[in-house]
Structure formats: structure tokens, C-alpha cells
Amino acid sequence: MRAYVLEDFGVEPRMAHVPLPDIGDEDVLVRVLASSVNPHESHVISGAARTYMEYRFPVTLGSDVSGIVEEVGRSVTRFMPGDKVFGALRGRVAHRGTFADYAALPADCLVLQPSGLDNIDAGTLGLASLTAVACVEALGASAGHTVLIVGASGGVGSVAIQLLASVGAKVIATARGREGAKYVRSLGAVETVERADDVASVVRLAHPDGIDGVLDLVLSDSQRLTRLASNVLSIGGSVVSTLRAADPEALTGARTTNVVATANPVALQHIADLVGAGCLRPSVSKVFDFEEITEAISAQQSGVLGKVAVRIAPRGEE
Ligand SMILES: NC(=O)c1ccc[n+]([C@@H]2O[C@H](COP(=O)([O-])OP(=O)(O)OC[C@H]3O[C@@H](n4cnc5c(N)ncnc54)[C@H](OP(=O)(O)O)[C@@H]3O)[C@@H](O)[C@H]2O)c1
């Protein structure tokens, strides 16, 4: 089968022909129809993921998946061959991946695809949506709360805006330019801040009594996040980071969470239900064919609104 693999540190990933992956008792073999690019893939390629993952070369890249169940392990009871599924591969070992014709995933990383959902769209939901769901839960926001999202126009932000808006929270979203501002408003943000501006000052001016939450998807520097959050939050507010930058010792008086997204059937079913109920729509801005995977990764790195999707199955079969 075709797979997009990284064979060692310091070398460019390449398309290769590799054997089908083996499946264990708890695994599912999926014929992959579509996937999407997350910043995680760039971290694996650059070797930055070495700090939190063990590499077993060759590493097949890719986390997100939509596809059709081909085979199930002996202990798997939730799926059968032919089921259409979506999800995301998570774990501490970089080896198996979804940028391939077939992918082996633990059954807990998958859920049945809601009917009517496009396969390409489904392939973009996994990691970004799991992360956004965990972030929104950690924020604890409800109707009337005001939340600032920094980095709102990307994969995680696009889902988080919609989830927060659906519970009646007011979202202030950072965005780049008029196109970015229009995009985040289309998802439910009620205020926007140009990302190049002094975000803390703009928010403070508009909300002198402070806001209820900050979801930061950009800053890896704890001190910068502490400064931003201290400037805009009211007492007892929440700070959530996907980059391990929320420092509970510095942010006294705030609730802090550093989210690490995990794949589990409950969260994935929640995402499927939100899509089914019309509360969450996937936001795909570009679709690349599998042969263009290198370009897809570059597009994600240079910044797009929402998600970069990858059509893995040949056109017409997806
Ligand atoms: N902890 C976890 O489990 C976990 C899981 C998933 C993701 N993550 C991390 O969470 C972050 C967001 O993920 P994602 O999938 O949403 O990434 P993404 O799709 O690349 O989106 C990142 C967003 O941040 C914006 N941005 C970049 N620099 C900015 C700045 N200085 N000020 C304001 N906005 C800025 C980008 O805007 P432009 O497009 O205009 O540049 C883009 O909208 C990434 O760092 C990722 O590695 C962590």
C-alpha cells in the first residue's frame, strides 16, 4: 500500500510502498478515504515530538482519519467490516499513521460516521475537534460568558468558536486581516481582534471589568500567556492552553488547564452528535490529493482558515 513515511530524523518524508499494518486484538484496520494535516505532523517531521513521543522508524505520518472498516481485532465489538468511521490516532509512539491507504488504529480512536457527513469533512474532524472539545470543557463556559480565543481561525479554533457559540458564550476571536475576521464571525464569533495588534489592550478596553476565559492556541511562552491573561481576565476566570503554557503558580486567582487531547469513544461520539445536530460544521478550506501531501503540509504550515484536508482514496472512491 502507499504510505507517507518518515524514515529517520533529518530526512524529508516520502511516499513509499509498505506492507499493510498488522492489527492487534483491540485494533481496527481502516481503508482510509480522507485525512487532514495538523501541526502535529510538522512536529513529528522536525523531530520536535521527540520530547513526548518514542519514534519507531519508519514512521507513517498522519493522525486524522475517515474511512471504511476492513477488519477488526478479536476483542473489538463496536465495529464490523464495512462500517464507515472517523477519528484520530493518538499515542506516545510515532510509528503507525493515517497518511496511508490502510491504517491500524485502536478501536477507541474511532466512532461511526454520522449519516450525511461528507468523507472529506469527516477526515478533518479528529484531532482538532477532540482538542477543541477538551478545551471548551476545561473553560467551563456557559451562556453569557465571554471567552477570548487566541489563534481562533485554525483547526482547533474553528471548532472551539462553534462549540462556545452553541452554549451561548460570547467569543472574541483573534484573526488575520478582513478575510480572517469575516471567517471567524461566520463561525459564531461576536468580536474580532487583529492578531498583529496588542490583543490584551484591545480586549481590556472593550471589557474593562474583565472577561471569563482565555483559550490560547498560539503562545508557548508561559510568561506571555500569564501577562495576557492577567490583563484581560476577571477574578476566577479560566485559562486554557494547548501548548502547556498555562502556569497555575503565576496565574493565581484563575483556573488553569493545559489540555492534552486524547481519543476516546465518548468524546468522539459527542463530536459526531454535534455534527449530526447541526451544532458543528467542519471547516475545510483546501483539499489536496494524496500525491500532493507534501504541498498539503506546506499549506498548513503557512496558515489557512480552518483545515487542510487530504483525499487519500483515489478521486471518485472517497
Ligand atoms: N495539546 C494537544 O493535545 C494539542 C492538540 C492539537 C493541537 N495542539 C496545538 O494547538 C495549536 C493549535 O492547533 P491547530 O490545529 O488549531 O493549528 P492551526 O490550524 O495551525 O491554527 C493555528 C492558528 O493560530 C493562528 N496564529 C498563528 N500565530 C498567531 C499569532 N501570533 N497570533 C494570533 N494567531 C496566530 C494561525 O493564524 P494564521 O493562519 O493566520 O497564521 C491559525 O489560525 C498548535 O500549536 C498545535 O500544535 C495541541
Blueprint (SSEs and pairs):
Elements: E1 2-6, E2 14-17, E3 27-37, H1 39-46, E4 54-55, E5 59-60, E6 64-72, E7 84-88, E8 93-94, E9 102-106, E10 110-112, H2 119-122, H3 126-139, E11 146-150, H4 155-166, E12 170-175, H5 177-187, E13 191-194, H6 199-206, E14 211-216, H7 222-232, E15 233-241, E16 255-258, H8 265-276, E17 284-289, H9 293-302, E18 307-311
Parallel strand pairs: 4-8, 11-12, 11-14, 12-13, 14-15, 15-16, 17-18
Antiparallel strand pairs: 1-2, 1-5, 3-6, 3-9, 3-18, 6-7, 7-10
Helix pairs in contact: 3-4, 6-7
The structure holds NADP nicotinamide-adenine-dinucleotide phosphate.
Helix content: 25-40%
List all distinct small molecules, including ions and cofactors, that are bound in this structure. Answer: NADP nicotinamide-adenine-dinucleotide phosphate
CATH fold-type name of the largest domain: Quinone Oxidoreductase, Chain A, domain 1
The CATH superfamily of the largest domain is identified as Medium-chain alcohol dehydrogenases, catalytic domain
| Radius of gyration over C-alpha positions, nearest whole angstrom | 19 Å
Compute the average pLDDT. Answer: 97
Helical stretch count? 9
Give the class-level CATH name of the largest domain: Alpha Beta
**Shape, per Cα inertia axes:** globular
State the CATH architecture of the largest domain. Alpha-Beta Complex
Helix-and-strand structural type: alpha/beta
